[in-house]
Every structure is written in C-alpha cells, then in structure tokens.
Design a protein that fits this description.
This protein is of the alpha/beta class. It folds into two domains: about 160 residues, Rossmann fold, CATH 3.40.50; about 260 residues, Alpha-Beta Horseshoe (pyruvate-formate lyase- activating enzyme), CATH 3.80.30. Helices cover about 35% and strands about 20% of the residues. The protein is built from 13 helices and 18 strands. Strands 5-1-6-7-8-9 form a six-stranded parallel β-sheet, sandwiched between helices. It has a six-stranded parallel β-sheet with strand order 11-14-15-16-17-18. The chain has a two-stranded antiparallel sheet with strand order 2-3. β17, α11 and β18 form a beta-alpha-beta unit. The radius of gyration is 22 Å and the shape is globular. Bound molecules: iron/sulfur cluster. The site of iron/sulfur cluster has 12 residues, from α5.
Length: about 450
C-alpha cells in the first residue's frame, strides 16, 4: 500500500512542536516586543523534531513493507503530488484548524486517518468521513497484526483508541531516511545529530488535572525493557557517534528502579552519546545523580510551575517544597548537569504579584534555562471538562501555552503576555549579570 504521512503546520514565526504537551503541541511565541520576537526566532531556527508517535507509526508501516512517505507542509494550501491508498495526518491543537482545512480538501482523493487524541474532543469540527486514531497510536500496526486485520477493515470506523502495545516490538526509527526532516536542537549543545527517543509512556501523577500526557498516553505506565532500549541506543551510537538523545518520556524517572537500571546499563555500554531527559525533582536522589553522570546525561528538565504552594495545589500539581527544589538544583549544578526549569504563569489561583514572585524565584535558582508559559485549559483534561472557567479564544490553534485562552479573575490577556515577556527578559538578564559577575571575579 502507498501511505502518506502528512504533517501540517500553520504559518508562524515561532517554533511549533507537535511532540510536546502530549501531542497537543505548543508554539513558542515568547512575547510581542522586539526582544521576545528575536528570542522566538532563535528558538524556531534552533529546535525541530516532528511528533514521535507519528514518525514511529510510519516506521512500523514501513517495516511491514508498505510504501511510506512523510511530507511536511505549512499553511492552508496543499496539493497532492500523487495518489495514495491512505493518508495519515498528524493532528495537534496548535495547528488544528489548518489541519482540518487541508483534510477537507483531501477527502475526495483518499481515505484519511487523523492521528492524535485532541481530535476525539473536537469531533464537532471534524468531517464524518475521517477516522480518528487516538492514544499511543504507534501501536496500531501491532494491533492490526494481532487481530489479523488491515487498514481497509478500518475504513468505516469512526474512532480507534490505541492505548496499549508492546514497546519492545517497536522498531528503531531511521532518522537518517531521506523521507524524514532533519531533527535539530542547537540549544542542547549543538551536537552533530540530535534524536528524540521514548522509553516509557504514561503518567499517573495528580497534575493530570491540567496536563495532557495522561490524557493521551494513559495513567498506566508502559515500559520498554531496558535491554531493548540499550540495544537501540547502542546501534544509534555506532551509526551516529556523538549524537545527543533527548528522552521524551513524560517523566523519565517514573519508575525509579527501572530508570536506575537503565542508566547503569547505558553507562556500562560506554556509548559515544550524550543525553537529556525530563523528570520530576521529587525523584532525584544522590544515587540517581551519580548514575546520570555515569550514563553521560548532560541536561535535565523539570516542571516547577509556580513558586506558590496554593497556586500549585489549586490545579493538583504534584510537587515538592521550594526548599527541597533549591537543594536538588544546587546538587545538579555542583555535578555539572545542566538544568531547565519550567514555569506556568497566570494559573487560575495566580495574581500579578504571585506571577512576579514566581519569575523572581525562577531567576534565583541558578537554572541554565527557564521556560515560562501561560496556563492553558486543554480539552480532555479534568480541569477543562469540569468547565469552571470561561473560554477566551476564537480558534483552538490559539491554545498554544503562550496566550491566555480563558478569562482569568484578575489578569487580562494583554497583561499575561506582558508577564511572559518580562519573565524571559528578566531571566536572560539575570544570566548575563551572573556571567559578567563571574568574569569580573575571574579577572580579579
Ligand atoms: S508529572 Fe504532571 S505535568 Fe508531568 S507528565 Fe505527569 S501529569 Fe503531566
């Protein structure tokens, strides 16, 4: 069969990632002033990789002998270059209306599958002829094999939810294929090659109140065995030495015993790779830090979200106290592991003052990078479904984590953007200040 994997992006001068926010996507539109626009442009030109589930799905069909092609397109104008048996479209909230516009034009030519959980919450906007595939849809080919079925049998299905599968059966993604776009992340040390990688899916933590990962990947953890993961990394190391691997697990440390074993295995293999991952500060202990160093993890990313317990508690953020956060970040700094802290401004219980003190807190932590975004109620999350807020957006594409898309009791849309700009400006200037102070000390 001839299969097209179509990745549609709206026009934007900011980086769009469809692999973040559990596949709902984000758009790093960091503000409206000159400084923020330059920063957004730098991020756009520095980082790109497509949605990992989507590329894995293509890899699985390719492995089963189908003729697969990936195409990335921007804007609402798109014409098919040839005839395909089936078209898979990578869906996200951040490009949703643009994706649907193109899907409508393609319907007369081919059967379409819209891949991504967001579609299942916005069915009223999706033409009936399209089949929605949600969850961990990279397991769809395995599911078809197990039921001795094929894509033609799914033609009339309206909705397929793929939650489970055996990750040990997933193939290693051939990022070198001329079919795929070049992945890049120059902000992570400008390695020659950069590859995203996933070893665990799902998250059971209480912050599912607002987070999309448990909504898309489930609350039960799906683990790929340490043997399979280390074998895949060994192959990548041989083929692409000096690459940087970013683990895209929602919480890399979700099963601490598993993570420690994996790090030990990676370290034992002495791979010519460096790594980074996103995890929860609560799970970091001295042994884990040693193992991160042993396995050559150069950076860790974690959510802090707010400096205020009442703000975090209001949205069930699973967190540790500020004193503990400070201690752990100090230890990571001491061990020369780069730190990226994520903060969410304008949360429902925030005020302008609490946002400003969160920004000050972020600047005081000696992080290498701070990432600020704006609280976004996402369809499918418990917070959204309870409906205790008033929506304030025209298109779902605006729900990009960098706009205020709900009526906040005290903060306006304009002020939210101002706080975002202030956060980035203040953090970057705090880094410059630190750098020049360090230089001066050195010269003395
Ligand atoms: S820890 Fe919370 S924010 Fe992170 S993936 Fe899990 S539910 Fe989402």
């Amino acid at each position: 069969m001839k299969l097209l994997f179509l990745d549609i992006y709206k026009r934007s001068s900011s980086r769009i990632s469809k692999d973040t926010a559990g596949g709902y996507g984000t758009e790093n539109d960091l503000g409206d002033n000159f400084f923020a626009k330059i920063l957004s442009k730098i991020v756009k030109n520095s980082i790109f990789w497509p949605n990992l589930s989507f590329i894995q799905l293509m890899e699985e069909f390719d492995f089963r002998g189908h003729q697969c092609k990936y195409l990335k397109t921007t804007g609402e104008y798109f014409e098919l270059d040839e005839k395909y048996d089936f078209i898979f479209v990578c869906s996200s909230i951040v490009c949703f209306e643009t994706e649907i516009e193109i899907c409508k034009k393609l319907l007369k030519n081919s059967k379409l599958f819209l891949c991504g959980t967001i579609g299942t919450f916005l069915t009223h906007l999706i033409p009936d002829e399209i089949t929605l595939i949600s969850g961990n849809y990279e397991f769809l080919p395995e599911q078809l094999d197990n039921s001795k079925s094929n894509l033609y049998n799914l033609k009339n299905e309206k909705f397929i939810n793929v939650l489970k599968g055996n990750p040990d059966n997933l193939n290693i993604i051939n990022w070198n294929s001329k079919n795929l776009p070049k992945t890049k992340n120059y902000l992570l040390g400008n390695s020659r090659f950069f590859f995203p990688f996933i070893s665990t899916r799902g998250c059971p933590y209480s912050c599912r109140e607002y987070c999309t990962y448990p909504t898309t990947q489930g609350r039960k953890i799906i683990l790929e065995s340490n043997e399979t993961v280390s074998n895949k990394l060994f192959k990548i190391s041989k083929k692409f030495p000096k690459s940087h691997i970013v683990f895209r697990d929602p919480v890399f440390s979700i099963n601490i015993k598993y993570t420690k074993n994996l790090l030990k295995k990676i370290g034992d293999l002495r791979l010519d790779l460096s790594f980074s991952a996103e995890l929860h500060l609560k799970n970091i202990d001295d042994e884990l830090i040693e193992l991160f160093k042993y396995a050559n993890f150069t950076g860790l990313k974690f959510g802090i979200e707010s400096a205020h317990k009442n703000v975090r508690d209001h949205v069930n953020r699973f967190s540790i106290d500020n004193d503990e956060q400070v201690k752990i970040i100090k230890k990571l700094n001491k061990n020369k592991i780069k730190t990226v802290g994520m903060f969410i401004l304008v949360q429902p219980n925030d005020t302008t003052e609490s946002c400003l003190s969160t920004i000050n807190y972020a600047c005081s932590l000696n992080l290498n990078i701070a990432q600020f975004s704006i609280f976004t109620p996402y369809p499918g999350t418990p917070y959204y479904e309870k409906g205790n807020f008033v929506k304030n957006f025209k298109k779902f594409e605006e729900c990009n984590q960098y706009n205020l898309t709900y009526d906040h009791p005290t903060i306006s849309k304009k002020e939210a953007r101002f706080l975002l700009e202030k956060a980035y400006k203040k953090f970057i200037f705090s880094k410059f200040k630190y750098f020049f102070t360090a230089q001066n000390l050195f010269q003395r």
